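FW: tagging you since you asked about this chain on Friday. Here's the raw sequence from the shared folder, copied in full. Didn't touch anything.
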Amino acid sequence: MLKHSDIWAAIDALARDNGLTASALARKAGLDPTTFNKSKRITREGKARWPSTESVAKVLDATGANLGRFLGYIENGGSANRPAPTIPLIGFAQAGDRGFFDDAGYPLGGGWDEIPFPEIGDPHAYALEISGDSMEPLFRDGDVVIVSPSASVRRGDRVVVRTTEGEVMVKQLARLTARRIELASINPAHPGRVLATEEVAWLARILWASQ
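HL: got it, structure written out here
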């Protein structure tokens, strides 16, 4: 017998194994990004809301998975035979809040979700889910970027920068000196930035993006 919780666990597992959040999976399938939100899985009246067969078909097509694989997820309640390595995940808007990073820009404390991702050699690596259109066309709303605070950065790298005021941005490193950091904008509609080094709390290199 199919269970409501197992169906949703299978969708979450399909997203996880493709390095996506549930919202990014929905967008990849051409659906509204909120289609698979946990808040939509139960109605206001407390009744179970099931994903439509059309939605399931679209995510299978978008990820290249077949029905047999999806049924396997259902049978195992979304669990894989061997747990995949995971890294912390945070939303872009949350990245400016206190309590999520230490002074070096390493993930800190609770409040993080997790997504599976292969070992990349940085125990402090984390995933950041993009929101908004300020980083288009390279990064779109719902894309996930993998950030390595331990990786060295050089000119031309795409980086996440947090200012001492708590502003977080994704830019391309144009120049780095002892006194200032020059950042080029990814979206030509938005200006670049020049910051004094004392205005920057930390910057970290982007290693990978799911698109």
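FW: The beta strands are 86-91, 113-116, 126-129, 144-148, 158-163, 168-176, 180-184, 193-196, 200-210.
HL: agreed, and The longest strand covers residues 200-210.
FW: great, closing this out.
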